[in-house]
Amino acid sequence: MTNRINLKDADSGAVIAMDVEDDTLMEEIIESAASFWNKDPGAYVVRSGDRILRGSTTFGESLIASGDQLERTPEPEGG
User: Fold this and answer.
1) How far apart are CA 26 and CA 38, in angstroms?
2) Which of 8, 44, 47, 50 has the most C-beta neighbours closer than 10 Å?
3) How many CB atoms within 10 Å of residue 60?
4) What Rg do the C-alpha atoms of the chain give, in angstroms?
5) How many CB atoms within 10 Å of residue 59?
């Protein structure tokens, strides 16, 4: 199933819309966004509200709804 999310870059405030599948890893979302913004994927995580979604978590496991806005933010533990 395809889901539409909005991903905000914490550094720049830029937002992109992405279509992801339930089996898409958060790591893949980070890498795709970094490529789109021409940035290094580096030590980043996806955040939903106050929840940190690690790279090995799939979209389906994350319990995020289609249409939600997520944020690409630096790894709080420094990677």
Assistant:
1) 18
2) 44
3) 14
4) 11
5) 24
The structure tokens listed for 68 are: 């939600």
The pair of three-digit structure tokens given for residue 6, joined into one six-digit string: 């909005």
Residues linked to residue 72 through DSSP beta bridges, in sequence order: 9, 46
What is the three-class DSSP state of 61? helix
Q: How crowded is residue 58: how many other Cβ atoms within 10 Å of its Cβ?
A: 16
Average pLDDT over residues 42-67: 89
CB 29 within 8 A of CB 23: no
Task: Please give the helix or strand (H or E) that residue 3 lies within, else none.
Answer: strand 2-9
pLDDT band at 54 (very low <50, low <70, confident <90, very high): confident
Tabulate helix, strand, coil % of the chain (nearest 5).
20, 40, 45
